[in-house]
Amino acid sequence: GTLGKQAPLAPLANALHDSAWTVREAAVLALGELGARVPSPLLLAARSDGDEPVRQVAELVLQHIYPELLASTSVNTIASVSEQEASTSQHVTLNGHHNHPLEIVRPGGPKQQKRLQRQPVPTRPRLFLRLTAGVAAALVIIAAVFSWSVFPHRPQPPLSRHPTAIPTSNISTYRVADGSAYRVTWSPDGTDIAFTNAVGLVYIWDTVTGHTISTYRGNFLKVLSLVWSSNHALLVAAEGTDRTVQVWNVLTGKRILTTPPLQRIASVATWSPDGRHVAFDGGDNTVQVWNIVTGKWLLTYTGHTGRVTALSWSPDGTEIASASDDRTVQVWNAATGHKDWPSFEHTDPVSVVAWSPDGTRCAVATVRGAVEVWDNPSWNKIQIVPANTGWSDLSHPLVVSIAWSPGGTRFAFTTADGIIQVWDASTTRLLYTYLGHIEQVNEVAWSPDGTHIASASDDGTVQVWP
Q1: What domains can be seen in the chain, in order of their start residue?
Q2: Is 458 helix (H, G, I), strand (E, B) or coil?
């Protein structure tokens, strides 16, 4: 919270879902220091927390930042106001069809120095002891963030004889307002890019002109998955403020699906190839599959014993690969939920899983950065990158995402330290390493013709490079 404009919003938002109430309370206090940067749905959700101390602090922060939302003392009324505001924002941005010029900068250019002025959060005497404990926990969080930024832990990429430098004239960088760039995808014709920030704002950009085509803010907290389906619908699977999973069509502004509230917040989702189904972790070591056309639940997969951390739907639509903290990758039938193959066990928890476009291979990564490619159906594996035994922060995976090129000849993976590597899938040779980002790269996406990659990072940029 003391870092002002440069404070990372996403980790604080994620801390609101921590199992310890003291951490959630500290996260609310830290968010209170950020002022109007904090989306109101985050605080409204905290105001409905299961623990009284968190609810009380969230109310104080809301009084300080968004006093107009507390005109009524009813939580339901406040949630209704939030939904109305999101609906109004949605109407303006979609129907108004914003077309603002987008600043295009080059990697290494000057960073925005404007910072928000800190504003203290009001306190109540009866909460003094709890607030003191919360402040202490907040200082621990701040110290951890500061030490992470000052003492980077960049893993050494494998040596390669291939050039890694890309002329800056060939790189377009789209700078994001309000923090990190989180999810990214290309339109089917390759002319537009859609991406989200860490708190659910969706942007659509024209890759030719560099202009913002539209901006969309739905009534949800965080986008779990973003896909441009073949029928030109831009679909968003998102985390709702009430622990639901929602599916929206961004281009029409219509909500397609809302599930019942889950036991815990969902964190990952994947789409069927035809865009008619969505699978997501149920927050309780399970995976739920829903038909977004009929709005009906289809099945719940219960094969894992730990939190589900990654999902990938096979290109032919028949199977789903799921990864978990139980250190397994499991491949199961998307229609029946039957496990088609034995569990593939790993030494560390698995953080990423991704099918190749032809379905003959599956790439897997563990939290310590081991990257493997598994053959289907023999399920023999080739280790691409060994685990980094020095990586000790198992709550933050070293390898964050994997994406295959459209032809399946190459794949790219991203790391928590801002590195992107592109590998030849046939020869298992490193082709090049991209170092244009300075913070964690959350996702990469190949253009439909396979000539460019778009990468979204916590450094607040989406970069497009060949």
Answers
A1: 4-106+127-144 (no CATH), 168-465 (2.130.10.10)
A2: coil
- Residue 100: is it exposed, middle or buried by C-beta count within 10 angstroms (0-12/13-18/19+)? exposed
Residue whose pair of structure tokens reads 């009866």 in the numeric block: 126
Nearest one of 133, 181, 166, 126 to 9, comparing CA atoms? 181
User: Could you please report the per-residue DSSP string of 246-263?
Assistant: EEEETTTTEEEEEPPPPS
pLDDT digits (tens, 9 = 90+) for 245-255: 999 998 888 89
Residue labelled with tokens 């404007």: 114
**SS3 category, 223:** strand
Using CA atoms, how far apart are residues 453 and 421, in angstroms rounded to an integer?
A: 11
Is 0.90 topped by the overall pTM? no
- Contacts by 294-297 with C-beta closer than 8 Å and gap 24+? 295/256, 295/257, 297/259
Structure tokens at 383: 């280790």
**Helix axis angle, 40-47 to 75-95, nearest 10°:** 160
CA pair distance 400, 125, nearest whole angstrom: 43
**Tell me: the pLDDT tens digits for 168-221?**
557 888 888 778 999 999 999 999 999 998 778 899 989 888 888 888 887 777
